[in-house]
Every structure is written in structure tokens, then in C-alpha cells.
């Protein structure tokens, strides 16, 4: 059957998919040519993916007319005084209400709180269902900054309320539009501000934020923004390491089974996105680098605890995490011609390095590194800065690569210490060449001196022989 599937409801949602509810038109259908022209204008407003656009344009004329009437009919849904299906709705009204929410203290009256939530929900619905031109106008009027301002000005009570969830929902709806998504990603602080919402105690808000961050990992240029956002959140929330909040929430019991399950599933989905998209799609070293960070925070025993939920969806995310981990560890072991590398054992890892480097020019440098480590003060308490410095430098040596397009050195992770590894290695190589040249010159000088000595000796012998002959 080549006929496109039945359409149930007219709404643009998530990845640009379109479903429509068949309505009985109350107006006479125009001529086919006129209808096709009207329908094409409607489709242009919907920001559909190319596949869905083609499918909708291929519908029979009677269904096109049903869809057209469903979109252009007079909407009457009223949320907080804003009509969410009226195509003539002005984005400026929504933005003004957002500014009022941002500039006002969080209300004490439940009715006023509900009113603010209705206004945010109305905007969320409008961003999802209104024409593409509505979203463009919302962007032009600086609607994104109005949403971010609401997030920035929330006090603790507002941050833990459902209003917070609704505002994050508005940002999700905006990012479901291609222009909206591009606008958010181009904003210098939007993803960082969104990440701050992980500090809330509201489970639904946490889940929505994780869904946004996980989706951004899949967008070109988005993965690095997510890593920057996690580093920003570490500083914002005064945490020891990035991902600490993520792992803590993965382990924490929030009391309600459904909330626990939903949040932990969202976290594992986010973790898998961070590990396996962006540079993680192609680079073993990058996946190992990020996974080591999560393992140091204790994710493995938590995963074993999560198996007790016996939930199919959660188990799929756990299985994927462990499957990719096992494959990566096997690939690492093959580099050392081993079946397995015990990365939990310092002595096992050192023994591998020692065997690999023992008969190479690198081995003296390994010994020198260890000898100098012994000279460091060992009592650091809770602030082992020197060891952290070593760790960060080695991480950059492992991760930095040259961009094929620009020739610039780039680090796929956020680098707290900016160093150019290639340039330093090049300078060291020049230094080695200089040392080698000096050594060669010294050898040549010694050979020349030996030759001069031998020549002088020969001249003396010749003089003696000549004198003997003359006598």
C-alpha cells in the first residue's frame, strides 16, 4: 500500500514528525490548483523534515483540505489568557509575560502560580504548534533571552516548582524547530544556563534538562557545548568534579519508584550520548578518557544496583554502556597484545608500560618521570594539585589532534590548561636534533684531533728516517 499512513493530529513535534487529526471541513473545498497553492504555503510554515514534507505533499486533495482546515480553523483554547491555536497570536505578548515573570518575586498565592504556569504552558504549546513564522518572530524579538532570564532569576522555591519545568519545556519546544535549535546553539550562554537547572529538586525538570543536553550531543558542534556546560555546572554548583551531580543523582533514591526509574533512565541515556557522540563516534581514546572519569566517580557499582529495577528500557541503556565499554577495553588490550588490561591495578598498568618501553629510547624518560614523582611532597590532604596537573597534561597529550580542515590543533574535550602539544613536541624534536648535531660535531672534532695527532707522529717518523738516510 503506497498511500501515506493515516494522520491523527496536526502538530509539529520532536524531530520534525507531523501527525494530524482528520476533521470534517465545514467550508467548501476550492479548486485543486488553488488548494495545492494554499496547502504548499501551509507546509512551508511547518518546518518539516524533507521526508515528512514529501509525504504530506503527496496526500490526496481531500486530506489536504482536512489538514488545511484543521490548521486554519479558529482555535479557542485559552491558557492564561493566550490563545494557543490562533495563528494571529503575537509572540510579543508571550515575551512580555515572560519578562513580567522574571521581574516579579515568586508569588505566594497558588492561583498566581497556576496563572504563571498556564502562561508558560501556552507558550510551549504555541512554539510546538504555531507556524514557522511564529518561531522566527519569537527569535527576532529576543524570546530566547526572555526565557533564559526567567531561569536566571528563579529563587529556590521557583526552581523547585512546576513553573521551572514549564519554562524548560518552552526551551525544548523552541529547540524542536530547526531555526530555534540553531539560535539556542549559537547563543553564548544558553546551554550553560539550561545546565544550571540540574540543581533543582524537581525530577521532571531534571529529566527535561538531561533530554535537552543529550539531544545537543547529537548536533554538530553541540557535544563540546555540553562538555562546557558540565564544567560550568561544576563551578556553579561548587562540585569537586564535573559529572558529580549526574552520578550522585544516578545513585540517589528519590523515594518514588516511577520518579527514580524515569530519572535514572534519562541519566543513562545522557551518559551514553556523551560517550558515543561527538569525538566519541570515531575516537577510542576519547571514549576511554570520558569513561575513566565516570568510573572514578563510581558509576560501575551503581550500574550493578540499577539492574535490580529489572526495567527493559533502563536495562537497554545499561547494556549499551557495558557493551561499548567491553569492546573498547578489548581494543585497548590488543594494543599491548593482551586479552585484558586491568585498569584498576596500578602495578598491572605499570608492568605493561615497562614491558612495552623497556628496550626503547622512551624508557629512560619513564624512569626519570617516576624518580621526579618520588621527589614530590606526598602529603596533599584533599588538594593534590600537582598530581591533578600531571593528569590534565597527559590527558591533553592523548586527546589533542590536528583538524583536517583548518590545520589548527584542537582538543575534543574542554581543556582547563591550554597547551599546544604539537608545538611543544616539535620544539623538543628540534632540541633533540640540536643535541644530536652537537654530539656529531664533538665526535668529528675528536676524530680531527686524533687525525692531527697521527699525522704529526707520521711526520716525525718521516723526519727521523730522512735524517738517518743523510748520515
Automatic annotation (TrEMBL):
It holds the Pfam family Drf_FH3. One of its GO terms (molecular function) is actin binding. Residues 442-471 are annotated as: Disordered. Residues 456-471 have a biased composition (Basic and acidic residues). GO terms for biological process: actin cytoskeleton organization; positive regulation of actin filament polymerization. It comes from the Eukaryota. SUPFAM superfamilies: ARM repeat. Residues 27-405 form the GBD/FH3 domain. InterPro entries: ARM-like (IPR011989), ARM-type_fold (IPR016024), FH3_dom (IPR010472), Formin_Homology (IPR051425), GBD/FH3_dom (IPR014768), GTPase-bd (IPR010473). This is Disheveled-associated activator of morphogenesis 1.
Amino acid at each position: 500500500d503506497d498511500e501515506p499512513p493515516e494522520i491523527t493530529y496536526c502538530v509539529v513535534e520532536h524531530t520534525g514528525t507531523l501527525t494530524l487529526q482528520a476533521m470534517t471541513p465545514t467550508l467548501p473545498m476550492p479548486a485543486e490548483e488553488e488548494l495545492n497553492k494554499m496547502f504548499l504555503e501551509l507546509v512551508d510554515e511547518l518546518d518539516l523534515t524533507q521526508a515528512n514534507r514529501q509525504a504530506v505533499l503527496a496526500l490526496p486533495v481531500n486530506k489536504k483540505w482536512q489538514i488545511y482546515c484543521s490548521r486554519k480553523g479558529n482555535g479557542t483554547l485559552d491558557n492564561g489568557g493566550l490563545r494557543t491555536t490562533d495563528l494571529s497570536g503575537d509572540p510579543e505578548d508571550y515575551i512580555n509575560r515572560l519578562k513580567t515573570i522574571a521581574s516579579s518575586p515568586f508569588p505566594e498565592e497558588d492561583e498566581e502560580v497556576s496563572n504563571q504556569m498556564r502562561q508558560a504552558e501556552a507558550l510551549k504549546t504555541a512554539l510546538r504548534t504555531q507556524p514557522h513564522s511564529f518561531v522566527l518572530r519569537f527569535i527576532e524579538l529576543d524570546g530566547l533571552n526572555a526565557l533564559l532570564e526567567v531561569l536566571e532569576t528563579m529563587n529556590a522555591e521557583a526552581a523547585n516548582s512546576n513553573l521551572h519545568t514549564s519554562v524548560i519545556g518552552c526551551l525544548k519546544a523552541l529547540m524542536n524547530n530547526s531555526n530555534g535549535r540553531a539560535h539556542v546553539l549559537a547563543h553564548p550562554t544558553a546551554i550553560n544556563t539550561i545546565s544550571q537547572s540540574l540543581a533543582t529538586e524537581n525530577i521532571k525538570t531534571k529529566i527535561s534538562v538531561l533530554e535537552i543536553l543529550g539531544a545537543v550531543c547529537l548536533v554538530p558542534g553541540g557535544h563540546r557545548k555540553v562538555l562546557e556546560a558540565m564544567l560550568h555546572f561544576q563551578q556553579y554548583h561548587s562540585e569537586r568534579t564535573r559529572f558529580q551531580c549526574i552520578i550522585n543523582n544516578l545513585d540517589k533514591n528519590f523515594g518514588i519508584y516511577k520518579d527514580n526509574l524515569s530519572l535514572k533512565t534519562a541519566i543513562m541515556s545522557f551518559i551514553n550520548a556523551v560517550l558515543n557522540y561527538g569525538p566519541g563516534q570515531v575516537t577510542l581514546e576519547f571514549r576511554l578518557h570520558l569513561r575513566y572519569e565516570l568510573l572514578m566517580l563510581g558509576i560501575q557499582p551503581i550500574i550493578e544496583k540499577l539492574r535490580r529495577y529489572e526495567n527493559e528500557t533502563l536495562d537497554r541503556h545499561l547494556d549499551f554502556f557495558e557493551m561499548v565499554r567491553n569492546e573498547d577495553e578489548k581494543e585497548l588490550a590488543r594494543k599491548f597484545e593482551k586479552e585484558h588490561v586491568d585498569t584498576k591495578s596500578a602495578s598491572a598498568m605499570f608492568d605493561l608500560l615497562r614491558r612495552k618501553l623497556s628496550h626503547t629510547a622512551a624508557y629512560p624518560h619513564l624512569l626519570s618521570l617516576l624518580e621526579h614523582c618520588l621527589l614530590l611532597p606526598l602529603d596533599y590532604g584533599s588538594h593534590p594539585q600537582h598530581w591533578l596537573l600531571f593528569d590534565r597534561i597527559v590527558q591533553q597529550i592523548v586527546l589533542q589532534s590536528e583538524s583536517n580542515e583548518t590545520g589548527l590543533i584542537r582538543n575534543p574535550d574542554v581543556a582547563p590548561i591550554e597547551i599546544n602539544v604539537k608545538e611543544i613536541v616539535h620544539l623538543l624534536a628540534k632540541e633533540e636534533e640540536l643535541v644530536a648535531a652537537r654530539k656529531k660535531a664533538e665526535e668529528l672534532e675528536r676524530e680531527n684531533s686524533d687525525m692531527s695527532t697521527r699525522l704529526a707522529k707520521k711526520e716525525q717518523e718521516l723526519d727521523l728516517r730522512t735524517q738517518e738516510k743523510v748520515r
